[in-house]
Amino acid sequence: MLFGLFLTLGVAVLSVALRSYQNPLAQKAGAFGILVATFLFIYFLSGSWLAGLGGALVWLLLPWLEILTRIRALRLPKEKTLRPKSPPSAEVFPSLNEITREIENEGFAHVNDAGWDWEDYRQFFRLFYRDEDRAQASICLNEQNDLSFYYLRISSRAEDGTIWTTWNYPLSYGLKLTPQFRINRQRPDQSFWQLYQSHKEYLRGNLVETSVITPMDEDRIQAEIENDLKDQIAHNLEKGVLKPANENEVKYSWRGMMYLWCQFLLDLVRL
Predict the structure, then answer these.
(1) Four-CA torsion 218, 219, 224, 229, nearest 10 degrees
(2) How far, in Å, CA of 160 to CA of 98, rounded?
(3) CB 100 within 8 A of CB 106
(4) Where are the alpha helices (DSSP H) in 127-246?
(5) Is the distance from CB of 122 to CB of 143 less than 8 angstroms?
(6) Which of 43, 159, 183, 268 could join 52 via S-S bond, C-beta 3.0 to 4.6 A?
(7) Could you tell me the pTM of the whole model?
């Protein structure tokens, strides 16, 4: 029993240490180690490897607590209209000005600030444009109740409708993207410079020249984002991820809730 306790503690400590490294392989090993530590703890406590396996699998079912409570009751608007919006305070988003300078240092011009609010949800976009290669960039802040996070996004809209996008979205993405999106997903800890270099390499690798990228202006950038949001809702209604809640709102279907859980499992593998 004492051996089992020390072995479990050793695996748990090693797993936490691996999770602290900014390395995908180390973090993936740390996540797996947490499952192993849970298995060992219950196995040495009960003497049953089936009980240990069941205990480890509980970690994979934990997202259903949020899905069956908060997500099931969630309502989203069918159409999201962006409006001019003041930037959040330094307490809410302390690194906004620093990230803005990083983006401007890469030759992007600050276009405007916009966003939308819906019940407990708030979304803020700081939009940028680089005329030289027709690239759009944005700082996106999502707020819901006490949870908030931000991500960076760089997009190049081709004349054929394809939207080549590089981003560092940190969580499982809760809706299916429309078919015209091509996503180059990067780690959340990467700087804007790293994202921009990755985006340019992404375009080169797919033989996308600047000449096929649609030029933008301030009004069109905001209009295209609104169209993206509208098309995404329509696409997820068509795929059964969402269903109508009333005339102006949609909500997750059971298929959509299963999709969210599968997204969590994919992120666990990707970590």
Answers:
(1) 100
(2) 35
(3) no
(4) 192-205, 218-239
(5) yes
(6) 43
(7) 0.80
Buried b or exposed e, range 110-125, using 16+ CB within 10 angstroms: ebbbbbbeeeebbbbb
| Dihedral angle sign, alpha carbons of residues 148, 250, 177, 125 | negative
Position with higher pLDDT, 212 vs 265? 212
Helix (H), strand (E) at residue 264: helix 254-270
- Give yes or no for a contact between 32 and 14, defined as CB atoms under 8 angstroms apart: no
Q: Tell the residue number behind the tokens 């996008």, with chain if given.
A: 165
Q: What is the rounded distance in angstroms from the CA atom of residue 43 to the CA atom of residue 80?
A: 50
Residue 271 scores a pLDDT above 60: no
Residues facing 110 on adjacent strands:
128
Q: What would the pLDDT profile of 214-224 be if each residue is shown by its tens digit? A: 998 888 888 89
